[in-house]
Amino acid sequence: MTYLTQDQIAAASKANLETLFGLTSKAFEGVEKLVELNLQVVKASLAESADNTKAALGAKDAQELMALQASLLQPSAEKAAAYSRHLYDIAAATTAEVTKSAEAQFAEMQKSFMSAVDSAVKNAPAGSENAVTLVKSAISAANNAFESVQKATKQATEMAEANFTSVTNSAVKATQSAVKLAKRA
To answer: In this structure, are residues 60 and 10 in contact, taking their beta carbons and an 8 Å threshold?
Structure first.
């Protein structure tokens, strides 16, 4: 039977702490980007609101006010779509970093586990070949399942991104059509 040494436990603890701090750092980077984006949006919104209020107060009649409102509708929708896209990009980038780290951690754990299994196989008593084959088969099946889940997750992520882009583009086009109709009226 193989026992872990104090050095192996210390090394594993150190690696786990480094992973934790790395993931925490990536999470804070995502939060920083989100805060920065929101501050930019608020600053731009305040400036635009002031300009729009001044323009509305300067309107000479109801028709000019309606035209002003119609002209503001399309840029607002496009800005909302751009904001949503930025949010999605920040979330996707942060998720990609976390996934990359998790995959690396899983690969390292898998390597260590396989090393322990190989060591145990070398010290296995005679006649245990069937048990060893069963263990290796189970490990192979688990690895294949994990890889299948990874592929499915990546495909789902790509499909979600494509759907998000499609919905965003449709919303902007619908807003553009609505603005054209409002200007005609």
So the answer is: no
